[in-house]
Amino acid sequence: MDLLQSAVSLAMKQYFVNLDGATACNIYELVIAQVEKPLLFAVMQETNHNQSKAAQWLGLSRNTLRKLLAKYDLA
Fold this sequence. Notes:
By secondary structure, the protein is mainly α. It has helices at 3-19, 27-46, 51-58, 62-71.
């Protein structure tokens, strides 16, 4: 298991412990929202805010990247 997978696995285990018996819901959306913003932020920093390069690194179209940047107020 690589570093990123291990980190996600550990975070999810801790999340379930912290639920303390409460019912989990919308876990997929929760995880995506928590991971997507810092991912976009890091890639934009590494590409010196070059949206074309960032979109290529992420495997997204530039339009999709722009929408995501606006969604998270990173534009």
